From TrEMBL:
Residues 246-268 are annotated as: Disordered. It is found in: Cell inner membrane. The keyword NAD does not apply. GO terms for cellular component: plasma membrane. Residues 2-246 form the ABC transporter domain. This is Phosphate-import ATP-binding protein PhnC. GO terms for molecular function: ABC-type phosphonate transporter activity; ATP binding; ATP hydrolysis activity. Its EC number is 3.6.3.27. The gene is phnC. It is a peripheral membrane protein. InterPro entries: AAA+_ATPase (IPR003593), ABC_transporter-like_ATP-bd (IPR003439), ABC_transporter-like_CS (IPR017871), ABC_transpr_PhnC (IPR012693), MetN_ABC_transporter-like (IPR050086), P-loop_NTPase (IPR027417). Keywords: ATP-binding, Cell membrane, Hydrolase, Membrane, Nucleotide-binding, Translocase, Transport.
Amino acid sequence: MLEISKLVKRYGHDKPVLQELDLVVEGSSVVSIVGASGAGKSTMLRCINRLVEPTSGSIRLNGNELVKLRGAALRRARRKIGMVFQGFNLIDRLTVMENVLAGRLGYVSLYQAISRRYPKEDIERAFTLMERVGIAHYANKRADELSGGERQRVGVVRALMQEPEILLADEPTASLDPRTSEQIMKLLQSLASELSLPVLINIHNVAQAKTYTERIVGLRHGKMIFDGAPSDFTKDALDAIYGGIEAPEEELTAEPDKAQSGVPHDQT
C-alpha cells in the first residue's frame, strides 16, 4: 500500500508545485494521474521514488516511511519501486536482455554487475517476463534496433525485474503512436492484475485513463481536484482540472481502438 500524506514540494520561494497532497493506492489497483502540464503529476511520481526530494509530508510504502531514508536504506527502498519512463531510458548499445537485467542491479554485487554474471534464476525470470510481454525473441537484439512499443516493453520488464511493490509509469505512452500506446496501457492493466501490483500512471490521454484504469486522480496547480471512478469523471470534473484549455478534443472523448489494444506485439 502506498500512503501519501500532506505532500509538499516547493522549489525555492516559488509557489509549491505540490500542495499538501493526500493519496492512498492499494491492492492491484491501476490509478491514473491526469492534469495539465505543470499540474505536478511527474513531480509527485518522482517524489515517491525520491528522484525529487519532497519539501515536507509523508510517503509510506507498505509501512516504510520513504521521505526520511538516506544512503543504503534509500537504495534498498528504491529496489521496490519500479519506474517506467516516457523516454524508455534504455542503454541503446546493450541488448534487450542486458537492459532487462539492469533491473537486478540493486540486488547483485558490483563484480556481478560489471561482469554481467547474473544468477541463473534472474536470467530465467527475465526470459519468462520477456515472453509474457512478447519480446523474448529480441533477447539478443540491440535496444536501438527496436520500435517504440518494443522499447517500452523492455522498460516495463526491466522495472518488473526489480520485484517491485509498486509500479510508477511517467507518461509511458507519450512517445508512442495511438495503436501502440493502447497496447502498452492494456499491458500495464493486465500485469497489475496478474502480479497483484498497484500501478500509478501519469498520463495526458484522458480517454485512455477512463478505459484502462479503475481510478482517476486529477491535479491542478499541485492540488487534488478529483479522485474517483472513471464513470464519475464528468465534463464538470474535466473542466475543473483543465480549466477548459487543456488537451485536444479527440484525447478527451475518443474511444480507444479496443480491437487493436490486446495485441501483444507491434512492429511500428
